[in-house]
TrEMBL record, chains A, B, C, D:
NCBIfam families: PFKA_ATP, PRK03202.1. One of its GO terms (molecular function) is identical protein binding. This is ATP-dependent 6-phosphofructokinase. Homotetramer. It catalyses: beta-D-fructose 6-phosphate + ATP = beta-D-fructose 1,6-bisphosphate + ADP + H(+). ADP binds at R24, A25, V26, T27, R28, K158, G189, A190, E191, R215, K217, I218, N219. Its main location: cytoplasm. Keywords: Allosteric enzyme, ATP-binding, Cytoplasm, Glycolysis, Kinase, Magnesium, Metal-binding, Nucleotide-binding, Transferase. Residues 6-279 form the Phosphofructokinase domain.
Length: 322, 322, 322, 322
């Protein structure tokens, strides 16, 4: 079993609420075992620039409740270049980092996997992505907070929607996945949800909405994932087809912010705590996953060879209840 | 002094959080004096269609905390036609309405003023408009809730803005007034606020932001009132001038919704209570206003002959603190 | 396979946020299959009194976001009497209820189990209990909302705790289980958590807090489950032992209220939807459970013969991170 | 006109949300005029101990949204001793502080007044007190946030109160003033409010509640100011007189915490900005007050010779609407 004296942490890719709670948990768990911790700034860029901060039990106090990430984050496209990765590996060895915790989404975990495969860097991943698009874990850090933010916003729309006769189109995040759109739409009883996974027939959709209106339904909230269509194009369909007045909301990066929910604080704390324990058990090249309510490891290779798909039962559920 | 046996209420124009609290207060204050109350649906349309509901002490229970308006609302452009107003006046007299409470913004209050001037309908207005654009009252119903909604949303952006290097452009309501943009920008320490009242020089603005960035400022949140520019056009200026990556949020009607804040519940309760008392004192053709923390009446003619302007000291304040 | 034409629903025992979302999901799923639905008021009392309401697709509109339960709830101690249960069974047969959905905690599910065993009533349970004390399901309805409520409250305490030098004692719900106390304490980084599952040594505890204070720790938040001690008795220990000024918060029933979180809305919607489908599959005498992110059935007999225990790893986690 | 080169700030007494926004506004307004700013820690204690920090434009970034006070606060009873005040005055002169901004409640402002009268220290006060008990200003910093916190909590109680048949007793802050109890009770439509200003007749109160229950009113929320009675003693009256089951919530210091509302951020920003400008105009020995929506100065001597009383119209309003 390898001895671990120093752990490095990065937060990488799109930020997600709860990343700070994970940083805190890794740091304090390591500190309880007398392991040093350093946090690199701006993800892989910090490793390349040797731009880091020493983290201690007390320096991570009061960060759990903060949105975003105190380590900041960046997308580092040059990390696709093997020579750049080699440089990162050299830097990590120079700095005597015996374990690297990578907190982020698929792109970030791919970087981790390659550092492990190519340079034998003892990495462990923690899934953080508001899109819930990471396979092999029931939930990723940030999803729950993001959903609650979207639901709170849409709930406010319902108030005003009931006062007027209009369609409200809300664009939410989700380039490749309709998870946020579907789950937030379910949570507010939206009249329709437009997602990348299911082709939309605007004729059928606007007809249905029109029939419902005639039967007395006042509210009309349509949730659209940015990966399926833009709010503006959906609005045009409504206005052209049924002459419906529409109003648009684009939530944008509000969905990435906010103090994390209890769920995300707990999930991030558990995953950060487990990441250190798994590193000590030598489970390198893996990702911490939530499975049946327990934290387990899954090889990064497996995680990254799969694609998370939306449960079709959820789609039927939304259609039945809306 | 006229005897008042029956009061009618309408909520009209754009809905504002707190309208229900005003309806409740009018109803319960009237009920305590054995005055009947009816609520017309959809503003002036309900008067024209004699579409109304009897309101009682208990029927308005549990509505105070709801956003929107249980009486629904509508814009009724045909009310600009004097014959239509004559019809409304006839209906009110048929229904033996001795006092009409009009809860809404400038358009709605103009209708009230004309009903009073042309047909001697004993009206009293209650200012409700999230834009805070109604003269002669310190605050209108809905402003405080709207501001808090905008501030909560922008605060979430700050988290994620600190994690990345980007400009975040947030479009808020305010066609004719920059009040919401200015006050919400002040409340989150936005880097810039673009409002209809002050011409914007994009060269100067983007230069300043660029200088601040070079001095180490990470966040960049720009708030824009819809009446000054669209978020997209602001974003284009940033991207073209300084190559800044931008992200857009358009809050839209979220700003009209939500359970009212304590301030709006209290303001609406006080104004509704006072409206009934002022009607009983014969103060027709007036609007209830908040002045030095007290509810007073102001003639509708005066209110509607003025234009509320943004206090220039507030603009200097925002420039100093941001 | 039995034919199901009419389903009855009760919400029973302590109310939990999300119960309404479950009622809505059962009703709309049943309605989509042309099954009639009636909701009994006040749990088993409504069955005994034949006090119920017909529920339809539209009558459950707008209830998902409401805390509490529109069907109201009650504890009915006389339901321990077999003759009373026989009467309930007769009433259900009189009313031609072919399936009974019981939404509640252990006491309520025990009633359901007995109706099934003694009178062959085709029951299915949905676990709802803010204490998360129901075995065989990862989560019960209401837990997530309750936790977020407690965390929001404690987070506010942290602000003021950092400004002063005092200990803040917060009493949360949990007669038999320390789940809420432990998870909320974890989520805010409380300095100590006192739960029924772990005996507390006040000498050791106050010594530790005192040492931390001397090392510069400003905050001191102690969370106590009502089943372990009262806030007042904890405060006395602090004041007597270390002369610490203390301040007390007792959250009380605030923890049962509030609009449900996205998690609880989704969980309740999925469980309500599945409950109807499981009834149609003849899975009587069971409870809907969340297991590995899927809804499954577990025999009520099994559920009620077990006791949910706190995962000791969670306790170690809290000790490590606090 | 005196030249001001250096300003000192303290936050003193009970903390109130918005204090940080005031510190930020004073600092940035002073910085814009090239005035140095130092913040003393723990109120007057920091002046006595010369325990302070230099504040700059950037060091107050990101503090506006935080509850509590970054300068911490303390009650310093020995400040009643003239010799101690003389020492504080000497320290301020040693440190070349040309203007002292005191942010706090009546006790803190009394200290400021004495420093001005006895030692000619150029002080200016900013009213901050969640109780809204400071005369001559429409609002003090922190009141609005406190009210919203209380209202949010009570609104959650209403959900669960409607599900059960019980009385819920909520104890809120307010030793000498019933403002918070009255305004929060108004905002949630509480069935009764017990405040120090109005003697309570428990026979009459419990009779009324009982009659309302018999007429079908389900909810029963009673708000009590800590200065009038304890929640427990109110509960005993209910249980003894009418055998009513009761449940207790004691909000405690939660009411002091939380991120400030838009109102408090704006009020604190305006008052901090004005305080600096008023100091430059030589308006020493005064307090910044909000009057008719404008910031003005009032001599501390006047403020402290008066007592703010609850507007009796507000009490009638609450009785009429509840």
């Amino acid at each position: 079993m390898p001895e671990i004296k120093k752990i490095g942490i990065i937060t990488s890719g799109g930020d997600a609420p709860g990343m700070n709670a994970a940083v805190r948990a890794v740091t304090r768990t390591a500190a309880s075992k007398n392991i040093e911790v350093i946090g690199f700034y701006k993800g892989y860029a910090g490793i390349l620039d040797k731009d880091f901060v020493e983290l201690s039990y007390s320096s991570v106090g009061g960060i759990m409740e903060k949105g975003g990430t105190i380590l900041r984050t960046a997308r580092v496209p040059e990390f696709k270049n093997p020579e750049i990765r080699a440089e990162a590996a050299r830097n990590l060895k120079d700095l005597k980092v015996d374990g690297l915790v990578v907190i982020g989404g698929e792109g970030s975990l791919t970087g981790a996997k390659l550092l492990f495969e190519e340079h034998n860097i003892p990495v462990i991943g923690i899934p953080a992505s508001i899109d819930n698009d990471i396979p092999d874990t029931d939930m990723a850090i940030g999803v729950d907070t993001c959903l609650n933010t979207a639901v709170d916003a849409m709930q406010k729309l319902k108030d005003t929607a009931s006062s007027h006769e209009r369609a409200f189109i809300v664009e939410v995040m989700g380039r490749g996945s309709g998870y946020i759109a579907l789950m937030s739409g379910l949570s507010v009883g939206a009249e329709a949800v437009i997602i990348p996974e299911v082709p939309v027939d605007y004729n059928e959709l606007t007809d249905r909405i029109w029939q419902e209106r005639k039967r007395g339904k006042i509210n009309c909230i349509v949730v659209v994932a940015e990966g399926a269509a833009s709010a503006y194009s959906v609005a045009r369909h409504f206005e052209n087809k049924i002459g419906y007045e529409t109003r648009i909301t684009i939530l944008g990066h509000i969905q990435r912010g906010g103090s994390p929910t209890a769920f995300d604080r707990i999930l991030a704390s558990r995953m950060g705590y487990s990441a250190v324990n798994f590193l000590l058990e030598g489970k390198f090249g893996t990702m911490v996953a939530l499975e049946k309510g327990q934290t387990v490891t899954v090889p990064l290779e497996k995680v990254l060879s799969e694609k998370k798909v939306l449960d079709p039962k959820l789609i039927d559920l939304v259609n039945t209840l809306s």
